Amino acid sequence: MSVLEVKRMANQLRQDIITELLPAKSGHPGGSLSAADIVATLYFHEMRIKPEDPSWVDRDRFVLSKGHAAPVLYAALAEKGFFSKEELLGLRQTGRMLQGHPDMKKTPGVDMSTGSLGQGLSAANGMALAGKLDKKDYRVYVVMGDGEMAEGQIWEAAMAAAHYKLDNITGILDYNGLQIDGTTDQVMSTSPLLDKWQAFGWHVIEVDGHDIEQLFTAFEEAKATKGKPTLLLAKTIKGKGISFMENQVGWHGNAPSAEQAEQALAELREEASHLG
């Protein structure tokens, strides 16, 4: 897809997120919306995948370490054709496929079950190391939240990825500055993150996580970087795209009411109309 087409898809993913959360009456809109441009770029431009064959051995792998942002992953999988969009309306409902956190055993296209924060990078390392050992050329992408940077396992995994020279892994840090209880600096400051990741042996690229052109360029740079893993330090806005949700910590884990959902969808459709 072109830059414009990915922008349109990111907008559609945001609409899908709101559509999912309304019947569920629960979920995590803020961090799903902040990651929409990143996920749209990965699934509709960057990653080599086959919706008709979710277990294709040569596919690129994706790990959503911040598993509570499952709505944006489900939206991308549905739009890509891994399953029907009708499934989105069953989010978090008993007996339905799409639960509150991704389940690799029940949902086509999910490469790793996540939800316990801090564990996704370790799993991604395993996939990347397996690719090296099997002489495969697939790449592994892992989206992490800035809140989970306070987890020690993240830094053990960061150290291991550099030690094993896993240049086939790209980490993307959704750096929106907010977590469930407040700002990341207030809850547990992990700044300066750029310096830390570089000190752990990673190639770090700073990007605007909502700028599709920057994301295109950054992913190309990551693929060209040899001998070390790459991290995209992606500055984002929690609740991006919906005026009353942007930068509001209260929307970390609360679903919109019917009236709020209507307003949110109206704003997103207005934006879509300007994208042509």
Automatic annotation (TrEMBL):
Gene3D superfamilies: 3.40.50.970. One of its GO terms (molecular function) is transferase activity. It comes from the Bacteria. Keywords: Metal-binding, Thiamine pyrophosphate, Transferase. Its cofactor is thiamine diphosphate. Residues 7-263 form the Transketolase N-terminal domain. Pfam families: Transketolase_N. Belongs to the transketolase family. This is Transketolase.
